[in-house]
Amino acid sequence: MSRNPRIRTALVTAGVLVTTAVGTVGVSAATSGGDAKAYAKPAKPAKPAKEQIAALFDGWNEALQTNDPEKVAARYAEDAVLLPTASPEIRTDRAGIVDYFEHFMEGKPKGEKVRSIINVLDENSAIDAGIYKFHLTDAKTGKCRTVEARYTYEYEKRDGKWLIVNHHSSVLPPAS
Predict the structure, then answer these.
(1) Would you say residue 30 has pLDDT above 50?
(2) What is the mean pLDDT of residues 105-123?
(3) Most exposed residue of 22, 86, 93, 172, measured as fewest CB within 10 angstroms of its CB?
(4) Nearest to 67 by CA among 35, 105, 94, 39
(5) How far apart are CA 46 and CA 32, in angstroms?
(6) CB count, 10 Å around CB of 72?
């Protein structure tokens, strides 16, 4: 470095300007094109709307109307747990879930939500709990009856598809 203070000051100032200019060009290049993704913070996936989760019951109920237990069971994850309304047996595999719906569908059930409370936990999981009614028809007499029950559906989004991972349903006890 030069001993002359004026030259030394000029060299230091030039060095600062060059460093600043190079740094600015580097930052500008990094944020305006090719490497911007390397610096960008990944966007967090959005949570589904409560209406989207509510519609999952509608799809389940539509599958129930087909009278095809396989279509209903397809809405459940392979490792789902079903604690059904009309059976004391806990169903923990596809065969058990299909078996339950084969018997349940004999009454030509049609579900109707009475009250629903939806809690979206994150972009891949949600809970829908509340009270629903099932309108059932006796296969022998043709007589219709309505059963009110409490329910909880726990959903997970797996491989882009919303599936039931836990479904509990129990007859609504009488008011006390």
Answers:
(1) no
(2) 96
(3) 22
(4) 105
(5) 26
(6) 24
- What is the C-alpha separation between 143 and 113, in angstroms, rounded? 22
Q: Which strands sit side by side in the sheet containing 125-137, from one edge to the other?
A: 76-83, 161-171, 144-158, 125-137, 110-122
Q: pLDDT tens across 32-66, in order?
A: 555 555 667 777 789 999 999 999 999 999 999 99
Closest CA to 85 of 148, 170, 168, 165: 170
Give CA–CA dist 152/130, Å, rounded. 7
Distances (CA, A) of 137 to 134, 147, 170, 171: 10, 11, 19, 17
**Cβ count near 5 (within 10 Å):** 8
Long-range contacts of 96-100 (CB under 8 A, 24+ apart): 97/69, 97/72, 97/73, 98/69, 98/70, 98/73, 99/69, 100/69
The region that residue 93 occupies, defined by phi over 0 for left and psi between -120 and 50 for alpha, beta otherwise, is beta
Shortest CA distance to 112 belongs to which of 65, 156, 71, 78? 65
What is the pTM assigned to this prediction?
0.75
